[in-house]
Amino acid sequence: EGTPRQYWCVLFLLFSSSSSPIPMSEAASKPPSGTDTITRVSPPHTEWKPPEPQPSPFAQMGFKSLDPSSKETGNLYPLCISSVVPRPIALTSTLSAAGVQNLSPFSYFNILSHKPPTLAIGICRKPGLEGEGSKKDTFANIEATGEFVVNIMSDWFIEAANHTCGDFVPEDNEMDLAGLTPLPSVVVKPPRVGESAFHMECRLKQIIPLSDDEGRPTTEIVVGTVVMFHVNEGVLTQTPSGSHTVDVARLRALGRMGGNDYGRVTEVFELARPPRPGQ
Q1: What are residue 151's DSSP bridge partners?
Q2: Residue 220 backbone dihedrals phi, psi, to 5 degrees
Q3: How far, in Å, are 121, 202, 266 from residue 206 at the CA level?
Q4: Are 222 and 180 spatial neighbours (Cβ–Cβ below 8 Å)?
């Protein structure tokens, strides 16, 4: 970024969640207008000095250890999705080898690098099926064509975006079924989602297969290189040094919580990076 180290900061995002589709307030239903949808607050403990302790509110309670390889532990899915939160969501657009459109959200997702811009999506197999039939349409399409588009989900189209995660057959076009708008991509063939304010056209870089203890495939991690960004001018801004950045308040991106819960940013606070020891 080129800015002095002492001005780097970590931005913390506080999420509110709901177990049902999030109703947009009257203010949120209007066009975004800067930072008025997010409250800037002070850090939780402004008086803290290193190395003062910051004890957990559960310090008097013990820990329960859970062995993933033990049958007594049971299904790990609820544990994983309720503890690693909030998770960003990749609303992923693909085309089959025959040209059939597919759109589906995945929250086992994140950006891995900015140079080169690289992201990863974990796509789990369909439960109860084996072989090629267990592959989700999104993965089968990426495997066949090597191309996909990640669209960031915002609260103004959450119901339509969530509709795309239904149990549809490969021949269904989820974008049409959800009433979303396809936009042509520039480098890759899969379309972008017009309602999203941020798109990343991607080419497949690597597939990392995962299997269970019996050797049965369970998940493929798709690593993709971003070959084109598209940023709606309504959310695009600049850093003090002139680099492109996104206004988080205007983007109103959603995160995945446990169960059927989604979360959205309601508050932010800033903490500067500490100086090196001795400085």
Answers
A1: 91, 199
A2: -120, 130
A3: 11, 12, 36
A4: no
- Give the pLDDT score at 1: 35
Cβ 85 vs Cβ 257: under 8 Å: yes
Averaged pLDDT score across all residues of the chain: 89
C-alpha to C-alpha distance for 174 and 169, rounded to whole angstroms: 10
Mean pLDDT to the nearest integer, 16-30:
38
Burial label for 67, CB within 10 Å (0-12, 13-18, 19+), is exposed
Pairing, β 262-272 against β 39-40: parallel
Kind plus residue range of the DSSP H or E element containing 219: strand 217-231
- DSSP-based three-state secondary structure for 194: coil
Residue of 87, 92, 107 lying closest to 202 (CA atoms)? 92
User: How sure is the predictor about 17, in pLDDT bands with cuts at 50, 70 and 90?
Assistant: low
Contacts of 47 (CB under 8 A, 6+ apart): none
Supply the Cα-derived Rg of the chain in whole angstroms: 21
Higher pLDDT pick, 127 / 18 = 127
Asked whether 8 and 273 are in contact (CB, 8 A), the reply is yes
Residue 33 phi, psi dihedral angles, 5° rounding: -140, 75
For the chain, the distance separating the N- and C-terminal CA atoms, rounded to the nearest angstrom, is 22
Tell me if residue 177 falls in helix, strand or coil.
helix
Average pLDDT in the 85-108 region? 98
